Amino acid sequence: MEDLNKEYRTLDQCLQHLSVNEGDRKSLNRRHAELAPLAAIYQEIQEAEQAIEELDSMCKSLSKQDEKQLQELALEERQTIAEKINVLYSELFQSLVPKEKYDKNDVIIEVTSGRTTGGDICQQFTREIFDMYQNYSSYKNWKFELLNYTPADYGGLHHAAARISGDNVYKHLKYEGGVHRVQRIPEVGLSARMQRIHTGTMSVIVLPQPDEVDVKVDPKDLRIDTFRAKGAGGQHVNTTDSAVRLVHIPTGLVVECQQERSQIKNKEIALRVLRARLYQQIIEKDKCQQQSTRKLQVGTRAQSERIRTYNFTQDRVTDHRIAYEVRGIKEFLCGEKCLDQLIQRLLHSADEEAITEFLDENLKLGK
After folding, report:
1. Residues near 309 by beta carbon (within 8 Å), at least 6 away in sequence
2. 148 in helix, strand or coil?
3. Picking from 10-19, 75-84, 144-153, 277-286, which range would have the lowest pLDDT averaged per residue?
4. Beta bridge partners of 227
């Protein structure tokens, strides 16, 4: 921070000179504006720490007669200043964290059942995870809009997608993308001889939802297929070509939707999901260009990596990225306080790494 503060003061002096040309002035002004809030907080911290030093010095010089009453007052004031310093350091920490421009976006979340060593535990687990995010949306007062839902046998789930909208949705859910592993003894779908611990997986994809201005899809780039919806749904499912498949020819991306009875509505939903997937490609490309040689532990993991294990036999959830364990799977799958605590820890860990990255880069620039 001392180096950044020194840079701020140097920029301050440079900008006061009329000799700086217009091109350089614009660049210097931008950097000056970036550092200004950091410098202001840092100055407040220095002043508060100086005040504590003066109080400590005063206490040492007090006579025994005045000592008791004045020391009590000094200690009280010292405690107030120390609390202020903690708040200022917290503000400084948040100011140092680079802001992601997608954090305020709504998201489309997709869950897909994986493979298992036996039984239907993947489909059941996929439904439980999807329900967990729906409950978490309610816990955070977000809007949860079902886009697609393909059920499996025994109350399980093959695939589902939903749009979640509200305050800072992507910020909270961006680290949920990846492979979630389950270890449990299946409750249904297996004979008695197979009643042992099985391992399965399901995947979560979190796509920030773009505005139409962010991603434009040319109708000429689309191939649109219609087919009959599969699964439960009565006569309509068997007789109407309401399901829609979109193929984005330039990228090869394929999106299907059979949630609604209307072919038009299914096309609108599929197009929304396609835009989100194309937007995700833009973001990934942007991140790759910005990423330094030091990979962040949390922030740059691919959504194909295993991120978490849910061990039902040991009643334990483990997040492998930050080596965090929590007991009580049923409570965790309720999608409320336990899940929120883990998400906050992930965000804090990512912030710490982002600050380390930020400081490393600034030290290199200083050299």
Report:
1. 180, 181, 182, 183, 317, 318, 320
2. strand
3. 10-19
4. 243
